[in-house]
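SEVERITY: medium
COMPONENT: batch folding queue
REPORTER: lab tech (J.R.)

DESCRIPTION
The queue accepted two submissions in a row. Attaching both inputs and their returned structure tokens so the on-call engineer can compare them side by side.

ATTACHMENT 1
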Amino acid sequence: MPFLKFIAIFSFSGLLIPILIRIIWNLIDKSKSIDLSIIFQKVTLLLWPTFLMVLPSSQEPGVETKFFLLSLAANVAFYTIIGVVFWLGLRKHAVYFFIGGIPLALMWWWFLNL
């Protein structure tokens, strides 16, 4: 698979995942299930690490949308970087899996222990 197509898949995933998570959160909020909410919060942090950018609130209109769009852009960049490192690991040398995998595993470990 060519490099640009491979990276495009990762970038699109970085865009699509937060949108789907946002839709699922709206459904979970309607159900009022605390257990489901706690579990999905961990899944959200694992799949959408830039979600923390959405948390600040303000009385100014449109701020939530701006933070969401900023978080989407950051998530696309994050997934693109992961895609580049993964592609390098597949095509060049397996050491790239460790270069990208260790920080990612540490980040996920930190999120799961919040």
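ATTACHMENT 2
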Amino acid sequence: MPQAWKKVADGIWEAEVPGFAEDSKEHVKPEFAVLRLSEARYDEFAKDHVGFLNQHKIFARPVNKQEVCSAAKPRKEKPEEGGFWYLVFAHWPSSTAACQAYPGWSEPESSR
């Protein structure tokens, strides 16, 4: 079975998300990325989202702005040995990104 995750740097892994094939009905195609970050790398990302994404060349084109990045609240406190965060991104050709972050050590709390 092929491995979907590749190590980008210490504490950073990226899942391979294929792009859409050519489609005459859709001229503007976003890129997608899924990252797994150690707790320390998530803290680094939280300080400068755009700088982090561009430094690690997550997308083919640089990100100019990130309009939305919300983090789900975990049901359980962070584990003593540290945890991981999973981030899901969409990046449009205008270089605007959006993301959602999920704690890897616990299911998110329900927003209902």
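NOTES FROM REPORTER
The mean pLDDT is 84.
No errors were logged for either attachment.
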